[in-house]
Amino acid sequence: MPLTKARTYAGSILVVAGVTALALLLRQSLESSDLTMLYLLGVVVVAISFGRGPAITAAVLGVLAFDFLFVPPHFTFRVSDVRYFVTFAVMLSVAVITGTLTARLREQREHARLMADQARRTQSQIEVERTRSAVLSSVSHDLRTPLTAITGAATALRDDAALSAATRRELAETIADEAQRLNQLIGNLLDVTRLESGALRVHKEWHSVEEVVGAALTRLGPALGDRKVQVSLENLPLIPMDDILFEQVVRNLVDNAIRHSGNDEPILVRGRLEEGELRLEVSDAGRGLSKEERSRVFDKFYRGGGASQHGGAGLGLAICRGIVEAHGGTIEAANREGGGAVFTVRLPVQGNPPTIESEAEPMMREARP
Amino acid sequence: MSDDGVPPVALLIEDEVGIRRFLRAALEGQGFTCVEAPTGNEGIAQAATRAPEIILLDLGLPDMDGLEVMRRIREWSTVPIIVLTARGKEREKVDALDRGADDYVTKPFSVLELLARVRAARRYRAESGATAEVIETGGLRIDMARRRVSVQGNAVQLTPIEYRLLATLARHAGRVLTHEFLLREVWGPTSTEQRHYLRVYMAQLRQKLEADPSRPTVLMTEPGVGYRMAEADEA
């Protein structure tokens, strides 16, 4: 920690005072030349600790104190013997030389530290740059693939009058599907950006998990096809969450399960309240996760084995983690006994769900058959 | 075609020419004549002079806020307005609905989805709030005159609040209703902050009326916005 200038000078005065006290104590048993050595030692200590300026101050103060107390005539600043001038000159020279050397050493050390900092910064800049260009090339590939399909199909429809009705329909479907994929990718990129910039605001209200899961399954509609999704929610109470964001978590998890398991394999959505938290599991009966995948599935742009052929850009699960953590919860991936992967979301439930007074009126008479 | 044989006019207030082009193609296929306005000011002028039967309004216009365009048109017109909005702008959707939009579609949308919204909005206006006596959608039958509800022919008992909620959704079938609107209609004007009431009663209704409450086909949720009863042709 660098000392302030005033403190270094105060320090040098203290050292001289200390040396003088010691010299006064030892004056009976030591020669005056030994006493000058004590002062010299003090000057060296100050030079090493505080640098040149304080060292010169210490030398001058030391000479004055020594002259006043120990050089005859005592208690005056007069000097009777010329050899003391040599002592003074030596003390001053030592102060200047040692102080200068110390200062130079210090500068070199500081310089070395700056160089190391600079190197570290450059290294991390290189890494950021490398990640950024990897991301850019991955994103532009992901954007260009559907665009290529759309351009091809659209120009064929425009330019080739001889196409059969069935082919036209197929091309139109290609355009619709690929545009949908493009839309999803852009949405995911925006979400990741929002999550990383901290612009995401979680707006919690008491929500029905069943309703949020239902909205997610509805929005997945076409992607889900006639896949079996078993939902088991055990009469969950209302849970505090942001419905728009949590719908996305459920949708991404189910979408992930669709991508990584066979068409005839069921997907299970299970929710229960345990130890004051909501535990929501989405599991599939696919090939499960390798050890590497388990630790990296939530990383941005990570694609597990074979995922690229499923059309994912490696953002869905990263978004899930971002949203769940913004809710104060956790998410983890594991393998199920008997095969397949299971993703577990845990959300803390704080406070009691609002109560609703039961209806005072009787059941509607008219509604009875 | 409307009754007098003159094609109905659809006004497209949208600055992107590509979007106007496909909207026009879709609507002309349904017998509309399309009038296009690339700015809000032009849209307001066209709304006054061309007497459109439906307006499609983009909320992101270059010259003025789409909500302001709607407010100005609503000063003198009850023409159905469907707003075109973007993903992630739930607050904007709610604002638009609360200020008199009939419905919204989120870009990008399919032609099928858009035409369903247009149909629902026009039908509601044509009936001018008066409701059909019997509403049927996806196996659900609501006899509004007798206040009887049945699913696949089996009578279902509802509490008074459940029935009021269901009837409100049914009167507006096909249209999104905001939380605030439903709370005001069913519980009264002092309850518009009690959104959890709505969630509990919607859950009860789904338990009684949906085959699988976690995959509803009639009582649909629009997260962050409200609820919508699916129409007969989509349920």
Topology overview:
The complex is a heterodimer of chains A (369) and B (235).
Chain A: H1 5-26, H2 32-50, H3 52-70, H4 83-159, H5 165-196, E1 205-207, H6 209-224, E2 229-232, E3 239-241, H7 243-259, E4 267-274, E5 277-283, H8 291-296, H9 316-326, E6 330-335, E7 341-348
Parallel strand pairs in A: 2-4
Antiparallel strand pairs in A: 1-3, 4-5, 5-7, 6-7
Chain B: E1 9-13, H1 17-28, E2 33-37, H2 40-49, E3 54-58, H3 66-74, E4 81-86, H4 90-98, E5 103-107, H5 111-126, E6 134-137, E7 140-143, E8 148-151, E9 154-155, H6 160-171, E10 176-178, H7 179-187, H8 195-209, E11 219-222, E12 226-229
Parallel strand pairs in B: 1-2, 1-3, 3-4, 4-5
Antiparallel strand pairs in B: 6-7, 7-8, 8-9, 10-12, 11-12
Helix pairs in contact in B: 2-3, 6-7, 6-8
Can I get a quick summary?
The complex is a heterodimer of chains A (369) and B (235). Chain A is α+β, with helices and mostly antiparallel strands and 369 residues long.
Characterization of the model:
The complex is a heterodimer of chains A (369) and B (235). With 369 residues, chain A is of the alpha+beta class. Chain A has helices at residues 5-26, 32-50, 52-70, 83-159, 165-196, 209-224, 243-259, 291-296, 316-326, and strands at residues 205-207, 229-232, 239-241, 267-274, 277-283, 330-335, 341-348. In chain A, the strands form 2 sheets. Chain A has a 5-stranded mixed beta sheet with strand order 2-4-5-7-6. Chain A has a two-stranded antiparallel sheet with strand order 1-3. In chain A, a hairpin with a 5-residue loop joins strand 6 and strand 7 (341-348). In chain A, helix 1 (5-26) packs antiparallel against helix 2 (32-50), helix 2 packs parallel to helix 4 and helix 4 (83-159) packs antiparallel against helix 5 (165-196). The model of chain A is unreliable at 364-369 (pLDDT under 50). By secondary structure, chain B is α/β, with parallel strands linked by helices. Chain B has helices spanning 17-28, 40-49, 66-74, 90-98, 111-126, 160-171, 179-187, 195-209; strands at 9-13, 33-37, 54-58, 81-86, 103-107, 134-137, 140-143, 148-151, 154-155, 176-178, 219-222, 226-229. In chain B, strands 2-1-3-4-5 form a 5-stranded parallel beta sheet, sandwiched between helices. In chain B, a hairpin with a 3-residue loop joins strand 11 (219-222) and strand 12. In chain B, helix 2 (40-49) runs parallel beside helix 3 (66-74), helix 6 (160-171) crosses helix 7 (179-187) and helix 6 (160-171) packs across helix 8 (195-209). Chain B starts with 8 loop residues before the first strand and ends in a 6-residue tail after the last strand. The model of chain B has no long low-confidence stretch (mean pLDDT 89). The A-B interface holds A 176, 179, 183, 187, 190, 205-208, 210-215, 217-218, 229, 231, 233, 238, 243-244, 247, 269, 353-354, 356, 359, 361, 363-364, 366-369 and B 87-88, 90, 108, 110, 146-149, 155-161, 163, 194-197, 199-200, 202-203, 206, 212-216, 220-224.
